[in-house]
Amino acid sequence: MARFSSRSLSSLPAGRGTRVAGKKVLVLILAGGKGQRLGVLTHERAKPALTFGGTYRLIDFALSNCMHSGLSDVWVLEEYQLHTLNDHLTNGRPWDLDRTHGGLEVLPPSPDTLTGTLEDAGNADALHANRHLIRSYAPDVVVVLSADHVYTLDYGDVIRHHLQVGADVTMVTTDLPDGEDGRRFGNVAVTRSGRVKRFDYKPDEPRGGQITTEVFVYDAPALLRTLDDLRRDTPAGRGLGDFGHALIPAFVAAKTAHAFPLDGYWLDVGLPGAYLRAHQDLLSGRSVALDTPDWPILSSSIPRMPAWLAGEARVSDSLISYGCRVEGRVTRSVLSPGVTVEAGAVVEDAVILRDATIRAGAHVRRAIVDEEAVVAARVDGGDGVAVIGARAHIAAPIRGDMQVEPGRRWRRGSRPTVTGDV
């Protein structure tokens, strides 16, 4: 079980904690968003708990990067479907964060949490709501991470660069990935010295191809001071919004924001199409290596039997997790633990999550099938992505960019409740 903060960390000596270049570092992982753009995949789970690559969860990337970067004081800020994430976090042991002092702390919602209670509340409000805990812990540097991106990065390199240039905030940037819409991200322009001279948050007309990865390193006093200033200047009944609405623009206007370019793969998987694309990149070798010896992605998982492939099974260019039973054909797909593909079934260009069953004669193409769903008909996303919710039972064909709610029985004549990107 995850260790919950008592919300009274002031008793911890200020001298404790991870240090980089002599500075005390605190990591905050923002894991409270509802992930509404993922539609039925996040109706019953927190987005950071969504399975990736068969046996991992999205939050594993941020936690593993922390462990390999030598950062051991990590707080996870939660808000939505807490149990789905806490069941995975346990006590932080998979990431070597189960410590007597410091380590993993889980911060559930509190009465003063602004998110969800004020208009325009967002992740900047989550930081403001926990400002008293940050002050009590007395860090020099605060690293703020999102929990739904696929990438590897040594945060220590970013922190040392941040301290060297004397920035109030350093944002990790990357080139806009192929096929992605620049309107989904914070767009930046950078001077030759690396200072951010322009920042546009989710602009209608993006300028340039550099975007933020939602990895931020802050000078702690500057962050707290700016949050207080923004809260004081924000009308009652309104929130601070997301980091891109007011927080980052305040530092850019003060000319104290710098950029650190990410050299390597990065993808935001906040849409069904991007989630499927990330798995296609994984299968083609374009993504990060999940099991590289010097930087493995770490996770907690329930042991199961090895995968079983029948004599008539045909599997190519796919990842098959433990506990799977395959008798049909699987091509360019990822099967999470416990998936069954019966004889005569076909799965191609798909992601099948835990304990789902693809019945004999079914054909699943360009689709995401959530946990414990049963597919007994053709599901074809066409040029889009079909998404089948957890425990749904598909007994009639589905075609196109369609989503089926969790637990629903889909028969002939059924009508979708969700269509397209959300």
TrEMBL record:
Keywords: Glycogen biosynthesis, Nucleotidyltransferase, Transferase. Residues 313-379 form the Glucose-1-phosphate adenylyltransferase/Bifunctional protein GlmU-like C-terminal hexapeptide domain. CDD domains: ADP_Glucose_PP, LbH_G1P_AT_C. GO terms for molecular function: nucleotidyltransferase activity. The keyword Repressor does not apply. Residues 28-283 form the Nucleotidyl transferase domain. The keyword S-adenosyl-L-methionine does not apply. Belongs to the bacterial/plant glucose-1-phosphate adenylyltransferase family. This is Glucose-1-phosphate adenylyltransferase family protein. The lineage of its organism: Bacteria, Thermotogati, Deinococcota, Deinococci, Deinococcales.
